[in-house]
Design brief:
The chain is mainly beta. The protein has a single domain, classed as Methylamine Dehydrogenase, Chain H. Helices cover 3% and strands 43% of the residues. A five-stranded antiparallel beta sheet has the order 1-3-34-33-32. A hairpin with a 3-residue loop joins strand 5 and strand 6.
Length: 398
């Protein structure tokens, strides 16, 4: 069953797709916003904030955390790019270029400075939630036909492809000379970064939807088979596993090389100690029983997780005590980014939110109008997020 890039694990929760309105605007054009665009170019030129966002969640541990100064305090919309079809892929940003996939079957490269298209690469089949990774001048992404594509970051020319047996919704990550990516054929693959050759594959007992978190030479995947696996990147051998008993669409956040935190489709959030292999806490919203599809951001002793219960939740990292929750008007599938005491995420209510990380109070919101199920990417003092209206939005300093 394919539902417009949404998570399907073969269970009753498979029908959580949302309708996407036809896009009536012209494709392939960037829209600027007057003097905001000019000022944005000047801000970008002086190199504000972190320089790169090379993969889903911004770092190998998938914690979604940025250092102070990465995001301006006062934001406004700087530009949009109209891709013409839903964007559920989260962007990568490297050397002033934004890389993102779309349901049109295109991998796009767009200027971070002004939203102008540099190049587009046709994957032929739609790109769902698989988000590009960039390393060594190569951009990697998976499509819903199960093909991994590697293209030249400068000109969008194909370098190699590798076909798995069925659709890919996981995002690739790069560890040294290899690309790690899961497929709905139940395998986790390691491919050569430069040539796409198969180095190893690990068979699980369910679809591999989660993006692998990388820590201490291990790739961690939480999956549809209810098992958290630690796979050695060097040879593909399983170092250990932890039976969670819950099938999972969210990717694990690995904290300090010791703790794993992720939500599940059994309507709860789990935290595990990777040394003892024991669960240390579990959260369930007793009032609203809905899955947690958003991947966690973890920093400063707090874990932030969006839910299909429509709330952004903040937990104490070591105990799971809920510190606050913030209600939106629809499910949250976007994975949050946290920087300098603020939480940034999209909601399927069509709004992009900024919250105070300590209190959960709303600081700012932008209304896009259609679901924002992709996750934010941040570089050069700018935030980029795709929408199901086919637009890519870029926010920066006022």
């Amino acid at each position: 069953m394919r539902v417009l890039g949404k998570f399907v694990c073969g269970g009753p929760q498979a029908g959580y797709a949302e309708s996407v309105r036809p896009v009536r605007h012209q494709r392939g054009r960037a829209r600027g916003y007057g003097w905001a665009r000019v000022l944005g170019l000047l801000v970008f030129a002086v190199g504000v904030g972190n320089a790169q966002w090379t993969q889903f969640r911004g770092n190998p541990e998938l914690t979604g955390v940025l250092p102070p100064g990465s995001i301006p305090k006062n934001l406004k919309l700087l530009w949009t790019y109209e891709a013409g079809e839903s964007i559920e892929s989260s962007a990568a940003i490297v050397d002033g270029a934004v890389y993102v996939g779309s349901q049109a079957g295109e991998l796009l490269c767009i200027n971070l400075a002004d939203g102008k298209l540099r190049w587009k690469y046709s994957t032929k089949d739609p790109i769902g939630e698989s988000s590009p990774a960039v390393a060594g001048g190569i951009v990697i992404v998976g499509d819903l036909a199960g093909v991994v594509h590697a293209v030249n970051a400068k000109d969008g020319k194909k370098i190699w492809t590798y076909a798995t047996a069925t659709e890919i919704k996981a995002s690739p990550v790069v560890a040294g000379d290899r690309v790690i990516i899961g497929s709905y054929d139940s395998n986790l693959y390691a491919l050569g970064l430069k040539d796409g050759k198969l180095l190893w594959q690990v068979k699980t007992k369910g679809n591999v939807h989660a993006t692998a978190a990388i820590s201490n030479g291990l790739a961690f995947i939480s999956g549809c088979d209810g098992v958290l696996r630690a796979i050695r990147i060097a040879d593909g051998k399983q170092a250990y596993e932890i039976v969670t008993g819950s099938y999972t669409g969210a990717s694990p956040a690995i904290v300090d090389g010791r703790y794993a935190i992720f939500g599940t489709f059994d309507n709860d959030v789990h935290a595990y100690d990777l040394q003892t292999k024991k669960q240390i806490w579990r959260y369930e919203n007793q009032q609203r029983q809905f899955p947690f599809y958003s991947s966690a951001a973890v920093t400063g002793g707090k874990a932030f997780v969006g839910g299909r219960d429509k709330f952004m939740h903040c937990f104490q990292q070591t105990t799971g005590k809920e510190l606050w929750s913030f209600p939106t008007r629809a499910r949250i599938e976007s994975s949050p980014v946290v920087s300098e005491g603020r939480v940034y995420f999209g909601s399927n209510d069509g709004r992009f939110y900024v919250l105070d990380a300590n209190t959960g109070a709303k600081v700012w919101e932008f209304e896009a109008g259609e679901p924002l199920s992709a996750s934010p990417a941040v570089a050069g003092g700018r935030i980029v997020i795709g929408g199901q209206d086919g637009r890519l939005y870029c926010f920066g300093a006022q």
